[in-house]
Amino acid sequence: MEFSRRHATALALCTIAAVTPIRHATASTFYSPTAPEEDSPPLASELELGYTQLSGNTNSETLLGKGEMTLVTEQWMHRLRGEVRHASEDDDTSAEQYLLSMRERRELEGPNHLFGFGRWEKDRFSGYDHQLTAITGYGRKLLDGPSANLTLEVGPGYRADAIDEEEDRGLAVAYGAVEGGYQLSDSASLEQELSVEGTSANTTTRSLSALDTHINSHLTLRLSHEIKHNTAPPEDVEADTDRTTSASLRYAF
């Protein structure tokens, strides 16, 4: 019975999201804004907050916070995003992550665009004190149908790694990403994102799979699974792959 109570509590306290109107917004893990709709507001923001607590034989809690602000000016889109994640078990911290990014996008003729972004991230258990990445490049929408879409981005960049108890290093980056979506029905859609950042020291792969189900015109249930893989993390890191599975409610108004 205790097992059932703990899991019922976890389901009841799943992520709750509050969202201001962004018809084009997605919970993109790669911070690549989609092209704005014709009726998109010039300024929009998104706030997401999640908290889960288990008590009894196991005492643990998880906190997730995300914030995003988007400004659209003619052919330009500017997006600022921040994330905080924290998890603990029996008062011992098991995850602590911070992220801040700024993304620029400029529309070109046809299904083409230019982009540039800067990202600062700090993960207490990654072996890095922090990482700072800057990438610029070209993107193209390969498929834009009534029920399916597919976009590709490529470009060069630079990453500065501050590694615990080692000398800092700077690395050239080759970046590629693909994002696709499929409308399963009037109320359900599937999203898949994949990015690769390759350097001479390692390759970082990020993946997001998400299923959105619209409960009504304002409320959406999202089931998502995120994967981050580093081919050669610092030596004192136990695992080279992080996985995050979450269920969230998103409220739009």
Overview of this structure, please?
The chain has 253 residues and is mainly beta. It has 1 helix and 13 strands, in the order αβββββββββββββ. It has a 13-stranded mixed β-barrel. The chain starts with a helix and ends with a strand.
- Give the radius of gyration: 19 Å
Class of secondary structure makeup: mainly beta
Estimate the strand proportion: over 45%
Number of DSSP strands? 13
Tell me the distance between the termini: 39 Å
Average pLDDT confidence is 81
Instruction: Report the uncertain regions.
Output: 1-29
What global shape is seen?
Answer: globular
Helical fraction: under 10%
Which series of helices and strands comes N to C? Answer: HEEEEEEEEEEEEE
Largest sheet: 13 strands, mixed, barrel
The strand order across the widest sheet is 1-2-3-4-5-6-7-8-9-10-11-12-13
Count of separate DSSP helical elements: 1
Short key terms for the protein model shown above:
mainly beta, disordered N terminus
Summarize the structure.
This protein is mostly beta strands.
SSE layout and pairing:
Layout: H1 2-12, E1 15-19, E2 43-54, E3 60-73, E4 76-89, E5 92-107, E6 112-123, E7 128-144, E8 148-163, E9 169-183, E10 188-198, E11 203-214, E12 219-230, E13 241-252
Parallel strand pairs: 1-13
Antiparallel strand pairs: 1-2, 2-3, 3-4, 4-5, 5-6, 6-7, 7-8, 8-9, 9-10, 10-11, 11-12, 12-13
